[in-house]
Amino acid sequence: MKFAFHHRAVALAGVCCLAVSFLANPAWSLTGTPQKTYERFSPSVFQIRIIDIRSGEKSIIGSGFSISRKGYFATNYHVISEIVNTPDRYRIEYYKGNKKQGDLTLVALDVAHDLAILKGEKRNPTSLKLGSSNLKKGAHVFPMGNPMDLGMNIIEGTFNGRIGVDPYQHILISAPLNPGMSGGPAFDASGKVMGVNVAISGNDLSYLVPVEYLIRLFREGIEQQKEADWPAVIQKQMLARQSHLIQKFVDAEISLEKFGSLKTPKNLLPAGIKCWGTSELEDLKENRFYSFGHKQCLSEGRVFLNSSSYTGYIGYSFLWMESDSLIPTVFYKEYSDIFSSTKFYPYARKKEVTEFNCSNEFVELAGQTWKGVYCIRQYKNFPDLHDVVLNFAVLGDPKRGHVIRIGLAGINEKLARSFLKKLLGGVEWTG
């Protein structure tokens, strides 16, 4: 494989037996219902408000909870991200009901796990115990938070395991988290925090951040990030995340599958990347003038940067098409339109990223000549982070074509080239 690109720079057996089981589990008898959990632990859970300094009104709301009587609180990074992005415009306050409890400052963050630790001006009268997310599937969990600014709520859900690539995993639960609950705690049956509310998937599926990541940030992050340059911290954490995921991808053993005239790598990172496919046959009666097959693979995890930007994506796709009915000029137009269409990169505002800088080259891949377009853009507030996009189209056949698309977000060029070498190095031409 030869590259010519050079450029600088995301869970009734009888009344007697039931009674015995209940009494034999003191943890469940103590806090095993939403009501008891709420009564005992809601005093340590608060609403977090991001206040617009000029208007004096809340701009963003979320939830948070006391993790130390020394005044420390936990929440999601995405709840307080505007403090990092525009610190002169916002401040952080925490409330119990409509009564302000005090101001908070950011003392540690983990953008890759969507966590933040805040510090209050006074000691906390109560705090929550941090436990473990190593529960059995089907275990009851109890997320708590302030949804839609309607007051503190607790819901009951089911633990469905951890998903993703360790150490960048989430907990999947069957429970309807709602906006405003982000950053609140999720309790196990003993009343210990087992996760942090983070995201809603729909259909009563939601995600938590495993509490182990919060414990690590609390133990190590506060001292390490003292007087931190937050953009520099975010860049370092993002590159560590992307480096870990791509190294897992690179270290995986390649297994090939036939795809049109190619053999392409099967999913090399099934724990973190999911693949989908579709195909259609040429059918003139249905006004379908070419056959095609399409396989797309995209990482499930993404990283929140600010209210309009996510990053951390890893995506790629393979497409083949061929036609018996189209004349070469018409086929070429259809082929060109497909080549120039969908790209793997996240939306970002112009003030956040540079324009894409693109180069066009002819490259040798799998013994064939391909047209390649390589594009890269830089994050203005995080200059070590880039989005890289590549499109390849094989040349030389008037009736048949293949397109490869690749998109990598929140990465540097060294990591991008390592990924490309592994993925494209496994492609073979079968003719």
Q: Could you please describe the fold and organization of this structure?
A:
This protein has 431 residues and is α+β, with helices and mostly antiparallel strands. The chain folds into 2 domains: 32-223, Thrombin, subunit H; 235-429, no CATH class. The protein contains 8 helices and 25 strands. The strands form 5 sheets. A 7-stranded antiparallel sheet has the order 16-17-20-24-23-22-21, sandwiched between helices. Helix 6 packs parallel to helix 8 (413-425). It is elongated, with a radius of gyration of 25 Å.
N-C termini distance: 17 Å
Domains counted in the coordinates: how many? 2
Tally of strands: 25
Count the DSSP helices.
8
Widest beta sheet: strand line-up = 16-17-20-24-23-22-21
Write the layout of secondary structure elements.
Layout lengths: L14 H9 L2 H6 L2 H8 L3 E8 L5 E11 L3 E4 L1 H9 L4 E7 L2 E12 L4 E6 L19 E6 L7 E2 L2 E9 L2 E7 L10 E3 L5 E10 L2 E6 H14 L5 H22 L4 E4 L2 E4 L7 E8 L10 E9 L3 E4 L2 E3 L2 E9 L5 H12 L17 E9 L2 E11 L7 E9 L5 E12 L1 H13 L2 E2 L2
Antiparallel strand pairs: 1-2, 1-4, 2-3, 3-6, 4-5, 5-6, 7-8, 7-9, 7-11, 9-10, 10-13, 11-12, 12-13, 14-15, 15-25, 16-17, 17-20, 18-19, 20-24, 21-22, 22-23, 23-24
Helix pairs in contact: 6-8
Could you provide a short overview of the structure?
The chain has 431 residues and is α+β, with helices and mostly antiparallel strands. It has 8 helices and 25 strands.
Please give a handful of descriptors for the protein shown.
431 residues; Thrombin, subunit H; six-stranded antiparallel barrel; 2 domains; 41% strand
